[in-house]
């Protein structure tokens, strides 16, 4: 993981002009099957599949939230988290992207590390924080996993880290020997 962290470009963050909805849009139905990105992630990550009716209405089912090591029954208690939050992506270089690329980022399903079905409470606690201020506090056993995935997503999308974030990732990598970071290319 140390080698991957060292590849991350360092730059100051800038939130100028950020508006979540205007900048990244909402969930889309890329394959036009009636299920938007949120529903696709819920279906993919269910540990007990929900019942699907109508135009992708989900009921029942069970999900494991690795952010806090809990099982959640039913889709209502689940949020879909952008592992690297949209605001953080904006601050780290996405502000220079086209709107279409930002919509692609917000709805990216080709790498399961990018969007996570997690307990709504944990997702809201995390909000748009980076590992400097939020580091899986309710499940410390997953910190190496979280840091490796954070690093991978940042590298995939050629996003920068600020100096404090770099320090946190560097320290975390030292505490996670043997943790691999595999980067999959994005369009």
TrEMBL record:
It comes from the Bacteria. The keyword Nuclease applies. One of its GO terms (molecular function) is endonuclease activity. Residues 67-170 form the GmrSD restriction endonucleases C-terminal domain. The keyword Nuclease applies. InterPro entries: GmrSD_C (IPR011089). Keywords: Endonuclease, Hydrolase, Nuclease. Pfam families: GmrSD_C (PF07510). This is HNH endonuclease family protein. It comes from Streptomyces venetus. The lineage of its organism: Bacteria, Bacillati, Actinomycetota, Actinomycetes, Kitasatosporales.
